[in-house]
Amino acid sequence: MTPLPYRVTAKRRETPDTWTLDLEPVSEPIATPRPGQFTMLYAFGRGEIPISVSGLPGDGAPLRHTIRAVGNVSEALCDLAPGDGLGVRGPFGTCWGLDGAEGRDVVIMAGGIGLAPLRPAIEHVLVHRDSYGRFAVLVGCRTPGDLLYAGQLESWRGRFDVEVEVTVDSADPGWHGDVGVVTSLLPRIPVDPDNIAVMMCGPEVMMRFGARAMVERGVAEVDIEVSTERNMKCAIGHCGHCQLGPKFICADGPVFPLSQVGPLLAVRSL
Amino acid sequence: MVARRRSIGDLLAGHPFFADLPDRDLELIAGCGRNEVFRPGQLLFREGDPADWFYVIRRGRIALGIGVPGREDLIIDTLGPGEVLGWSWLFPPHVWTMDARALDTVHAIALDGVCLRGKCDEDPVLGYSLARRFAGILSDRLAATRLRLLDVYRAQSRG
Ligand SMILES: Cc1cc2nc3c(=O)[nH]c(=O)nc-3n(C[C@H](O)[C@H](O)[C@H](O)COP(=O)(O)OP(=O)(O)OC[C@H]3O[C@@H](n4cnc5c(N)ncnc54)[C@H](O)[C@@H]3O)c2cc1C
Ligand code: FES
Questions:
Q1: Interchain CB contact of A49 with B (< 8 Å)
Q2: ipTM score here?
Q3: What is the CATH number of the domain that holds B103?
Q4: What Rg do the C-alpha atoms of chain A give, in angstroms?
Q5: In chain B, how many domains are there?
Q6: CB contact under 8 A, A68 and B147
Q7: Helices H, strands E: what count in chain A?
Q8: How far apart are CA A122 and CA A133, in angstroms?
Q9: Is residue B3 part of a domain?
Q10: pTM
Q11: Any idea what the Cα angle at residue B108 is, between residues B106 and B109, rounded to 5°?
Q12: With CB atoms counted within 10 Å of each terminal CB, which end of chain B scores lower, N or C?
């Protein structure tokens, strides 16, 4: 599967090391991604990496990706300017169980850049608000300056039909929001274990703690979805680079019910 | 006087920290309590102050901070309704280890630690029950601190 040529149409700095790129196809677009899926972004001459879709294309909206510059390829992608070209393959992987969650309460828990793959899920629930029960979005990050989509979070918080809670690990006195780990937000939200869908993405340690807290409140592991991450190469289940125990994250994941990957998340190195 | 104590007892009974505590114990505890309101920005106590009180938060949020030489204070925790601020009253040397400041208008019940320690010494069943509740808070805070020590958001490329 060869990458399709795309071009950057806009670029927004989210935090000191994280950028959101708006992309448009030069000719043919990739198939429309679903919330939770990722693409392989190819920075010419540098390489290709998996990046989650942080904004779905359609209705005039571009394909969006939010990228944290951590190394060779992610830095090259963050250095792109409007007008520059890149390659896109995909979309790949499983998506959040938004259809199965209809009629139920939805709790979304995101840590750091884990909010990126959850943003399309949040937008989906908000657009189809009547199809879901209570809706809570819990977000954690290191400091206020590391918060993604701050403006959007603020506008969601202004709605009456979603509870948005944000907490940071530490802050200067200018911050009037919550300080504490993201799991400390959980006691605030009502949980009906028989009628809930939980979606989590963030550092694996955070997801382990968050999942444990939910299970302690009676939520079944099948009702908790987590998005996992491993290095990737082919993205189509051939090379074995992305293996998590018996699973290939690119093909079987990245979104899994906890019932399938819970024990694997607890293992130190796979 | 009696009416005031009863109303504090009722408020304590409705607070999750005191859930399931027998009325008799609630009355004993309420005898050491008083209602307090803090304005936004008001300092409740400073690091190093004697920790003679603790606070049962009913409304509003409180920021806990530590002074860091050469830079602005760092807020390391916020507490809100349903939570309890302070355990230094329980353990010698009974000194606060952080600053606490109201973020918004805070309604709290302040409980006199010296008074309560006396009652716990006289009534070990009450003492055990309270110590267990505080141990639960300490264990939650320890887990949260460990999670934060890992600095998970920095360590991983995603999240
Ligand atoms: C399904 C999936 C979705 C992803 N979505 C996003 C996203 O939306 N936004 C985003 O910024 N990143 C995302 N990532 C992570 C991203 O793919 C990696 O940051 C990227 O592959 C790093 O490549 P690099 O060449 O920039 O860094 P390298 O030069 O390869 O490595 C730099 C450093 O990052 C570490 N590293 C590399 N890859 C990973 C990884 N996958 N997990 C943890 N550490 C890693 C390396 O060990 C090294 O320390 C996703 C990963 C997967 C598997
Ligand atoms: S990346 Fe090759 S099998 Fe998943």
A1: no
A2: 0.78
A3: 2.60.120.10
A4: 18
A5: 1
A6: no
A7: 6, 15
A8: 13
A9: no
A10: 0.87
A11: 165
A12: N
